[in-house]
Amino acid sequence: MNAKKAAADKAVELIQDGMTVGLGTGSTAYWAIHRIAERMKEEGLQLQAVSSSKNSEQLANQLGIPIIPFSAVETIDITIDGADEVDGESSLIKGGGGALLREKIIASNSKEFVVIVDESKLVETLGKFPLPIEIVPFAAELTIRRLEQLGCRPVVRMADESTFITDNGNWIVDCHFDEIKRPGELGERIKTIPGVVEHGLFVQMASTIVVGHLDGTTTVR
Ligand SMILES: O=C[C@H](O)[C@H](O)[C@H](O)COP(=O)(O)O
């Protein structure tokens, strides 16, 4: 059984007719987008959506989920998105797919932010997964040096032979901390560095975590 799909299917049950839905990015959000499209067809749900990435927007378009421009958004009722790590306090690392900035904007403007993960993403302490940080390409070497001074090993993300470019035209630096004991504090320090656009720590943002297990069951917290 696909644990990511199990979590996604469970979370999509929270969506009700007429809602504006934030679409996440990644291999778990993929299943949620598929399930949303299925529910629209099966139950005739009328929904509109905003997307956290060009990839998810393309998928939504293929599946017939109407994407509306942000200028037309009054409220985002619910956003369903994946994560790379989730700790016991429901703090997250996100950005493995490079979509963290748009994901954070959408999540922080949503009434409900539902995180869907398979059980392998649950950790005691964040940080084994390198923390993705979006930076502007201008003077990137200087910004990266500042990140290094926070105690991590920064690695510029590559896509094949060239630098990975986000949907916003920026770079991602994957910062290897190994252990992030105080994610809130670290997040605040990272944000003070000029050149940093956003980081992948999502602290006290998730309203619900849906965990999918290999046997197809889910745990909601
Ligand atoms: O930028 C990507 C996102 O933050 C993803 O939601 C995150 O990386 C989890 O992705 P996946 O569901 O593919 O493991």
Automatic annotation (TrEMBL):
<dbReference type="InterPro" id="IPR020672">
    <property type="entry name" value="Ribose5P_isomerase_typA_subgr"/>
</dbReference>
<dbReference type="GO" id="GO:0004751">
    <property type="term" value="F:ribose-5-phosphate isomerase activity"/>
</dbReference>
<dbReference type="InterPro" id="IPR004788">
    <property type="entry name" value="Ribose5P_isomerase_type_A"/>
</dbReference>
<feature type="binding site">
    <location>
        <begin position="81"/>
        <end position="84"/>
    </location>
    <ligand>
        <name>substrate</name>
    </ligand>
</feature>
<comment type="subunit">
    <text>Homodimer.</text>
</comment>
<feature type="binding site">
    <location>
        <begin position="25"/>
        <end position="28"/>
    </location>
    <ligand>
        <name>substrate</name>
    </ligand>
</feature>
<feature type="active site" description="Proton acceptor">
    <location>
        <position position="103"/>
    </location>
</feature>
<feature type="binding site">
    <location>
        <position position="121"/>
    </location>
    <ligand>
        <name>substrate</name>
    </ligand>
</feature>
<feature type="binding site">
    <location>
        <begin position="94"/>
        <end position="97"/>
    </location>
    <ligand>
        <name>substrate</name>
    </ligand>
</feature>
<dbReference type="Pfam" id="PF06026">
    <property type="entry name" value="Rib_5-P_isom_A"/>
</dbReference>
<comment type="function">
    <text>Catalyzes the reversible conversion of ribose-5-phosphate to ribulose 5-phosphate.</text>
</comment>
<comment type="pathway">
    <text>Carbohydrate degradation; pentose phosphate pathway; D-ribose 5-phosphate from D-ribulose 5-phosphate (non-oxidative stage): step 1/1.</text>
</comment>
<dbReference type="GO" id="GO:0009052">
    <property type="term" value="P:pentose-phosphate shunt, non-oxidative branch"/>
</dbReference>
<protein>
    <recommendedName>
        <fullName>Ribose-5-phosphate isomerase A</fullName>
        <ecNumber>5.3.1.6</ecNumber>
    </recommendedName>
</protein>
<keyword id="KW-0413">Isomerase</keyword>
<dbReference type="GO" id="GO:0005829">
    <property type="term" value="C:cytosol"/>
</dbReference>
<dbReference type="InterPro" id="IPR037171">
    <property type="entry name" value="NagB/RpiA_transferase-like"/>
</dbReference>
<comment type="similarity">
    <text>Belongs to the ribose 5-phosphate isomerase family.</text>
</comment>
<dbReference type="GO" id="GO:0006014">
    <property type="term" value="P:D-ribose metabolic process"/>
</dbReference>
